[in-house]
Amino acid sequence: MKKILRTVTMFLIPLCSFALHAEEEIYLITVSNDLGKPKIDAPVVVRIAELGCDFNVKSAVITVGGVEIPSQIDDLNGDGRADEIAFVMDMPAGSAKSVRLELSSVKKQKEYQSRVFAQMLISDKNGKHVPISSLTIPGTSNVYNQLHHHGPAFESELTAYRIYFDQKQTVDIYGKFRRGFEIEESQFYPTDEQLARGFGDDVLLVGGSCGLGTLKGWDGTKATHIEPVETLTETILAYGPVRTIVDVVSNGWQYQGRVLKMTVRYIMYAGHRDCEVQVYFDRPLRNEIFSTGVINITGSVSYSDNDGLIACWGTHWPVGDTVKYAKETVGLATSLPREIVLSEKPDRLNYLYQIGAEGKMGFKYHITFTSMKEAFGYKTSKEWFEHVVEWKEHLLNPVKIKY
Q1: What is the pTM of this model?
Q2: Among 86, 115, 195, 278, which residue's Cβ finds the most Cβ atoms within 10 Å?
Q3: Tally of domains within the chain
Q4: Are residue 149 and residue 42 in the same domain, yes or no?
Q5: Which value, in Å, is the radius of gyration of the alpha carbons in the chain?
Q6: Phi, psi at 363, each rounded to 5°
């Protein structure tokens, strides 16, 4: 990293007649793609602490080759100070690019067109859907049906997800015919008129399964839900324009002889169909065993590399109404780092890996899916399984940042 400029500017706020100091710093970093394949919309996450910036960053201008690219600043722990700057960029195979970061302690009025969207709605007593950003309930309460699409929903141009607000915490999916944004208008439940205009819809009946990569407990024979807990909180932490971040916090989870506080964070980037899942605990893990994978869709075919990647391709009704709705064909996949994989044992509902991270405070993995209705997606199980193998290769070889 090279810090090339630091300035301090004093200016007046006319209505209040007091002076503010605007601190600014400019850094140069290098982003490289060592993989012998190009990366499109590669996520780049700059940790402000690693830059050595000593003021609270309120705005950033990111340029590559003199061209500004959209970015966002996120406070991840709610302490009022920015933690990360995120952006996406295209990286040719084996390439390196110099990136200029102009940071300021003053919020500048700059908006980028968002390439992601997030939404959580609760119904009032009149049935009106009211936007909320966070909700906490006792573990004995049930607000599943008071939340319009049962929890937070988020999307990129390609795919959309929702997280159930209950003990299942299931990851459910919404498939699209065409690229674009639909959740703000359809709210995950398109009308007949919207369907006639080519809107997508829910494409998977998850039931009591792990759906797509939902983290579950493990009782030795089957995946278990996240219960009992003292409180459950779900929060939309970031709305875009580059990425959405959704946190699910299970506080006081009584599990395998311990009481855990677990945060499952879902991050979706612009231009991506996949989602990064980060799992954090309030203390180092011992020998707890968890599980995740993908639902075993009735009649599905599956693929495993026996090293953390599990996928399936199947066709089934997405909802209980088999008259109005047709069967949907989807491809699902979960990719886990090999160091957390303990075993691979399916249960009645799921293709599963058992995982653990003894001595660690957490771990991360990734989930992805396709709907065969996509004009831009995959049409056969062979195409899908080939894609997820390449997807895992990209996950194992992210871009590198040199500060």
Answers
A1: 0.95
A2: 86
A3: 2
A4: no
A5: 22
A6: -165, 175
